[in-house]
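Schema walk-through. Below, the input block comes first and the output block second. Nothing else is stored per chain. Lengths vary across the set, and this one has 66 residues.
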Amino acid sequence: MFTALALIHDGALATGIGSVVYSVTVATAAFTALLAPSEPRRRDPATVLRILLRSRRASEDQLDSR
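--- output ---
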């Protein structure tokens, strides 16, 4: 029983860490896209941000369709 609880705890911890890393990545891309001094430097972070949010939106749409 304790092994199952430990596995659930470890899974929840890993999910939380993954969520924080994803959030920091999205925030960094957004701030870089907003604060870059020139258009070419803003374009790459904006593309990364679009890709990250598109994949997130697609996975939410799949969950909604169930």
